Fold this protein.
Amino acid sequence: MSWSLILQVLHPEGGSACVSAGDYYKREVDAYRSGWLADLPGGLAAPRSYGIVEHLDGACWIWLEDVTDEIGPHWPLEHYGVVARHAG
């Protein structure tokens, strides 16, 4: 069986370190750690997190499930509207 993971790397210089800032760089790390993304409403699902590593320089690595869909990598414009409605 083939499989793959996605490594998302977040850097402090990519956003604010202030939790209340709109560009808080660790927001996704906090969301995964809170458990909130494990039970989303309305049939939505976030990729599973297989681990989070915080480095001394402030960088965070999130190891995520590689998610695919039946549409493929090139979504038609109409599908973005569907996703936006589901996301609220």
